[in-house]
Amino acid sequence: MRIDDLIIYANNRKASDIHLIFGLPPKCRVAGELESMADFVLNDEDCNNYAIELARYRYDDFLEIGEMDLASTIQGVRVRINLFRQQEHTSIVIRLLNDKIPRLDCLGLPLGVERLTELKRGIVIVTGQTGSGKSTTLASLIDRINHTRSCHVITLEDPIEYIYEPDLCIFNQREVGRDTKSYETGLRSVLREDPDVILIGEMRDTITMETALKAAETGHLVLTTLHTGSASEAVDRIVDAFPEAKQQQIRLQLSMTLMAVLSQQLIPMKDGKGLIPACEFMLINPAIRNLIREGKTPQIDNVISTTADKGSITMDNAIIKLYREKKISSKTALLAARNLDFVKKNIT
Are 189 and 147 in a shared domain? Predict the structure, then answer.
């Protein structure tokens, strides 16, 4: 099967990912489960030819480095591609993205998330595991801004996933490795490019984090992602990335610039027809700012629990809500829970 055929097949199956691995048939992930796409087994020649077709003029770079992130549009489907070497074989994972950026109000996110698009400054962080929908959420936030405000939006991504069509906003989308050498070098110049909104694909290191904090302090809205499991863990992840002597300064900066953290996971729906997001949403208030400043992040979850009337919600309460709305099963709820006893008590 050609790459085009694999993409068409997976898209028709509403798959999220395609896996091409030596010694196995092509596989795709549908509603969270892996299934075979054909009855033949991939050999080295198959995998290498797929990699050559996808990487094109960058194939030699891939052979030298051993892994590579790419994005492309194939058969009308926007895809994110990761090429990598394992046990002297080439492997490929292709993430299928939405053809169009979904509307923010169609994602099933907490109601307060829409208000984030009205912010003029500060940092908004979306967290979650790989494949939890972080990029789609960020794209929907940016798209909402595009249709409601007049802004200059600059994105730094590795790779570019969604292409924005200007409406009220103007866009400059920069891809790491193609348009700029690294997040570090790209961010070094971004503040001189008159941005209103800055999208950082991922805060990977202290330089990226420091620049994001500086941008937020100087009156820009920064949207970004982190690989953490909860809202409070996002705070610790940023602070702990810095040397101990600098951590108090970072806590102070975070307490002043952080506006919200959305932590999400995708879990199977009860009817078996797909995945649904379960989201923890932390809207920053004076109490949370004090806890961040004082290094008392373990107490943040309690504040989130007691400010539900303001729009915040813990992950476990979000899971319980989905169960009570009959969108997920009790088994799924328990598997996704953080505090198993708490969720079990509230669904039985």
Answer: yes
337 contacts 343 by C-beta, under 8 angstroms: yes
- Two structure tokens written together for 189: 């110049």
Instruction: Report the run of H or E that residue 94 belongs to, with start and end.
Output: strand 89-96
Domain end point (choices 62, 96, 130): 96
**Residue 17 in contact with residue 27, Cβ under 8 Å?**
no
Q: Cα(149)–Cα(117) distance, rounded to whole angstroms?
A: 9
Distance CA 122, CA 135 (A): 19
Asked whether residue 155 falls in the same domain as residue 210, the answer is yes
- Indicate whether 74 belongs to any domain: yes
pLDDT in tens, 66-122: 999 998 889 989 899 999 999 999 999 999 987 789 999 999 999 899 999 999 999
Q: Long-range contacts for 45-52 (Cβ within 8 Å, ≥24 apart)?
A: 46/20, 47/20, 47/21, 47/22, 47/89, 47/90, 47/91, 47/92, 48/90, 50/3, 50/20, 50/90, 50/92, 51/83, 51/90, 51/92
Distance CA 15, CA 13 (A): 5
> Quick one: 192 and 305 in the same domain?
yes
SS3 249: helix
What count of residues does the chain have?
348
Reported as type and span, the H/E element at residue 123 is strand 122-127
Give the DSSP H/E element, type plus range, for residue 245: helix 244-257
Segments forming the whole domain that contains residue 64: 3-96
Question: pLDDT grade, residue 246 (50/70/90)?
Answer: very high
Residue tagged 């200059």 (tokens): 152
Which pLDDT tens digit goes with each residue over 261-282?
A: 999 999 999 987 788 999 999 9
Number of domains in the chain: 2
Dist. CA 122–CA 124, nearest whole Å? 7
Same domain, residue pair 51 and 140:
no
Give the domain CATH number at 243.
3.40.50.300
The DSSP result for 266-308, as a single string, is: EEE-TTSS-EEEEEEEEE--HHHHHHHHHT-GGGHHHHHHTTG
